[in-house]
Input
Amino acid sequence: MAVTKQTYTATATLTAATFFAQLRSAFIDAGLMTEWHDNFTNTLENRVLEITNAAGTYGKTYYWFMVGATGNLFYHVATAWSTGSDIPSGTQYLDYFATTTNTTGNHRQLATFNFTTDVRITRYTSGNVNFFVISQGAAYSCFTIVKGSGSFQPWVDFSKGFLNLLYEVAPAASGGWGQVSFNRYASLRRELGRGTALNGSTTATNYSGTSSSLSHGAEYAYCGLGNVSNSWITNIGASTTRSAIVLPIGFNGTNGAYSTDSSPVFHSLPYSQWVTTTMGSDFGITMLYTANTLGIYDTITVSAGSEVWEVMAFANNATITTGATPVMLARTT
Output
């Protein structure tokens, strides 16, 4: 088993248009679209991805991407889009935040890059799941967009609201713990589950998820506890921002049933409360207690020649042995 991996490179000196040409290819090859729903320029380059989740009134989500004047990828969401006018439609704050198409101030920044060196987009696909890594040098971002053919929970009602299903993969580490979170940020009042939090707000940063109640957008998070005394109380129990599913890592010092310390690659994990499909067996999370100098695209070998995983996202922990380095992986062999 292995993912399908493909790299798309926007070669320097690049422009917003040449970057979007590569992102277009990645999204088409991922089965997310056959073409941009809208494609226009108003000082800045704008592209719109339409995902049909269901036949309900709000069964479509429009992902509105924009590249800044000197680089960086931004996005927001809408429940409807007017291709004739090149703007979102509906009721402001319910269905879109703003109609301004020549500034990034209303959007969330998804990836960091400039136009002076190559930008690499890597697509990892397995079954119905895609992850994308956008990287330039050491800077990177990792995210997934749930395909419209995903299987939704029976209590999801698209006649009442829509869903932003772009998840940013966000590893974090500190001291005796490590965590990989799947975060949703950009939101509107019409969004199921989170829209109520925006009632009364007209502040851009609230809607793009960089402040207020949407700043900690994790729905699923997986945590590894360090091999350190009192790790739970000190690092998890005392914090309200680290609620997570604790992975069953085995330390000999804690559990004598383990003859050696064990931190396997955990796969087939759920990553969205809204869909029933998991990430599948070719995407996984591990916690490393013997390495804290990882880089993007590094590999972790479980069994030489038969099971090799590639790093899609990570957070090097300053503490070695007793502190976990959380890693998001794609199986390449």
